[in-house]
Amino acid sequence: MLQQMNHRSAPAGGAHRLRCIPYSVAVFDVGLSDLVARDGGLARSSLSACGVTYDEMETNPAEQNLRVATRLGHLHVRIVGPDELPTAVLWPSMFSDGHAFERVVPLLNRHRRLVIVDPPGLGKSDPLGVISDIDGVAGAAMDLLMGLDLPLPVDWVGEAFGGHVGYKLARDPKVLRSLVAISAPPETNPELLRMTRVLLAVVGIVGRRPVTSLVASKQVTPTSLRDPTVAGVVRRAFLANTRRSLVNATRSFILGRRDVRSELPDIAVPTLIAATTARGEWTVEGAKAAAALIPGARLATIDGASANSSLEQPQATAGVILKFWEGSPEC
């Protein structure tokens, strides 16, 4: 177990203090960008020693790119916005990474400090070398929250996969302040599971590239796929990590996911269930049934989107999130 450590240097401008806390993380008393600008050597060595590293440091001190150690490997996160705002964590759908939220960031970051996550085995996060499940990834999410030393509770916005993780965390109001679960069916779908098993068999034979368009067609609508920006984000995310990592993530978080409808009454924070009208395997009626199981849950509908509404319909998605955060009775 890590102990408290202080690393000090004594340049003319004064010392910088680094505190290492459990889960191999680093917390600075000054902004990371500011620290690198004034003492890059200290920042690089101290971050590495404590398990938090950065891929690229933005010149804007309000934006950081970090990698945080968790039980499922280092997760890549991008943090946007000033510290004084309440924090919201954005977790994307399966086969996606943090770029799926790019279009809603300018609409939300005036209201929240955003922590945008690449899930285990996806995007710039470490390849997933083990088979896990939603409980395991919820544990990794807790590692991430503790690792970043975020002031708890936080708001959670999860699309599909991210919503499934949110269902687990939302049982503790000391962890989450609120939950927005978008296109996140709590039940399993036998036909989707069958198709996923076939997909993995094909990927094992021919690799990922030949099936990229097929997977993209399940993530976004045909109209959205004709947008080069949307198509590029979806396809790059699918190919970003290793093939083995993608297979392990699929087995863990799709094939290993179980029906959690019996757990929904235990959710203890304000919750918004948002249905997307173009996701064929989960209808608005299914979302209504899920919301009915959660005490006080609200329901919203986002038209013209599948599992990546932030990418497909950013204005509508941000609209329902902001109304919910503001406490509007109609989301």
Textual characterization of the structure:
The chain has 2 domains: 1-53, no CATH class; 57-325, Rossmann fold (3-Layer(aba) Sandwich). The longest helix is centred in the N-terminal third of the chain and has 19 residues, at 32-50. It is built from 12 helices and 11 strands. The chain is an alpha/beta fold and 331 residues long. Helix 5 (190-206) packs antiparallel against helix 9. Helices cover 38% and strands 17% of the residues.
The number of distinct structural domains comes to 2
Beta-strand percent range: 15-25%
Major sheet characteristics: 9 strands, mixed
**Which sequence of strands runs across the widest sheet?**
3-4-5-7-6-8-9-10-11
H/I helix tally: 12
Distance between the termini: 44 Å
Average pLDDT figure: 84
Please give the radius of gyration in angstroms.
20 Å
Order of helices and strands: EEHEEEEHEHEHEHHHHHEHEHH
Helix content: 25-40%
Per DSSP E runs of 2 or more residues, the count of β-strands stands at 11
The fold-level CATH name of the largest domain is Rossmann fold
Derived structural class: alpha/beta
Please identify the top-level CATH class of the largest domain: Alpha Beta
CATH superfamily of the largest domain: Alpha/Beta hydrolase fold, catalytic domain
